[in-house]
Design brief:
The chain is mainly beta. It is built from 1 helix and 21 strands. The strands form 5 sheets. Strands 13, 14, 15, 16 and 17 form a 5-stranded antiparallel beta sheet that branches. The chain has a 4-stranded antiparallel beta sheet with strand order 1-2-3-4, with no helix packed on it.
Length: 280
């Protein structure tokens, strides 16, 4: 186990504090550039150098692109670009924008026409070569007997060169992709580019004293080549992240369906439990 991965095991406790405080889970840079953690809070994006909290500063997106709320800052693999979501308050449209390390707007990765039947959200996951960004995408599948719209959330990717944004992995009747804006959910692309680990949900028997069926959060894995989505855990889990070499996954555990996160576990990339990092 590398020193960096041991550090991640300790750092995940800090992430838990950020989640409980309503702050987006930070994403650190990769590559040779100085390490910087980006997170959103109080209507803006902030950056801080690990171990030097006094250097924290406000990251200001370019106002020429429209005012609105910003969220889900995610560094590119080489740490040179920061992708983030902006909801333009004038058009109510979501965009994935790109900024450099100084906060200057340098491009738009994705901007869909305004539509009530399709939208997207972060957190995001860069492919290791920096050519694609994976994100949660939703579309309307119908309406129920009360006339309320029914949506399905899938995993989409946007090609940075062409702008194409196909569905990579679709929710099934057994496994539902969990929309990122509904809680401390995460999505990470493996370093070898072959897999994406993310939060999913499925139907289980409720834990006593609740009876009936409940929706339970667990950890899912997407095969990038085939788009196949499968469960890695069945006992509850949330907010997964790959280790630097991609051989292990750290995640928050759940004690029972419908409960709150109870501790931190590590499993292999194939889904085999390895050890508990933070006791429940």
């Amino acid at each position: 186990m590398t020193a960096a991965w041991r550090y991640l095991g300790r750092f995940v406790s800090v992430l838990a504090i950020a989640v409980l405080a309503g702050v987006a889970v930070p994403t650190a840079r990769a590559g040779s550039l100085p390490p910087v953690i980006a997170f959103n809070d109080a209507g803006g994006i902030w950056t801080v150098q690990p171990g030097v909290p006094s250097t924290e500063r406000l990251f200001v997106p370019d106002p020429s692109d429209g005012s609105g709320s910003v969220a889900f800052p995610t560094w590119s693999p080489n740490g040179a670009e920061l992708a983030y979501q902006l909801r333009d308050s004038t058009t109510n449209r979501d965009k994935i924008l790109l900024a450099d390390r100084t906060g200057k707007l340098i491009g738009t990765a994705l901007s869909l026409p305004e539509s009530l039947s399709k939208y997207f959200t972060g957190p995001f996951a860069w492919s290791p070569d920096g050519k694609q960004i994976a994100y949660w995408c939703s579309h309307q599948t119908g309406t129920n007997q009360f006339g309320i719209e029914i949506y399905q959330t899938d995993v989409c990717v946007v090609d940075m060169a062409s702008g194409a944004h196909p569905v990579l992995a679709a929710s099934t009747s057994a496994i539902f992709v969990t929309k990122g804006s509904g809680g401390p959910y995460q999505m990470y692309w493996s370093r070898n580019g072959k897999e994406i680990v993310l939060d999913v949900s499925h139907v289980v028997t409720c834990a006593p004293p609740v009876t009936g069926l409940c929706s339970q959060s667990d950890i899912g894995l997407v095969d990038v080549a085939t788009g196949t989505l499968r469960l890695l855990t069945t006992g509850g889990g949330i907010s997964p992240a790959f280790s630097p070499n991609g051989s292990e996954i750290v995640y928050f555990q759940y004690q029972a369906a419908g409960s709150t996160p109870a501790g931190v576990d590590i499993m292999s990339a194939s889904g085999s439990f390895i050890r508990e990092v933070v006791p429940s």
